# Entry
Amino acid sequence: MSLAHWLASAPIGSRPTWNVDIDPKGALAQAKFGRLDIAVNCAGYWAPFRKFAVEDDELWQKMANINLLGTAKCNRLAIKQFLKQEVDDSWGSRGRIINVSSCAANIAFPYEVAYSATKAAINHMTRAGALDHAEDWININCIAPGVVATGMSRQNFEDPDIIKHMKKATPWPRLGTVEDITAIAMFLCSKQSSWLTGQIYAVDGGMTLGVPP
# Structure
């Protein structure tokens, strides 16, 4: 059984994760299951809110390095590995990539220009990369989460004033959970999504639809 097939059938609580190191030569760590089926690029960096003019070169470089360049490198290395593998006919792919951007990549938010710009770049990289490698049976899609309680956003969730504004901007009656994001990620790993590529999935409770009433 391949990793992809096992992930699709295993209960969420029993699915382990492995860290993958990128060595100086750019080689992926040896896959535990003998091949690489899925690469999820969800590393990110966010800084406390500040106006555009106050952002400095150091902030922009760190945002670019982590949010964009690291994601791009992981995409390229995963694709190179996928191209060494045969197409899995029962799964419909040679390999899958899921990138994670942000709702800030789809619409403008104040006080986070560097973050928004690097996340928007991930969206378009997903589309362009998917176009390059669709003929290779490689799926590249992206999830753009809304306001979700994660470690990176903990500071926001501890600020009642920020939470008030986030809830007001989210049409759905609640903010997001990690399970909201993992559910769409698991779908994008499934056989049922084998004909989907280059798509950006806004999982944000309707935040990017427009101004709620």
Q: What stands out?
A: The first helix runs from residue 3 to 9. The beta strands are 38-41, 95-100, 138-145, 200-203. The mean pLDDT is 84.
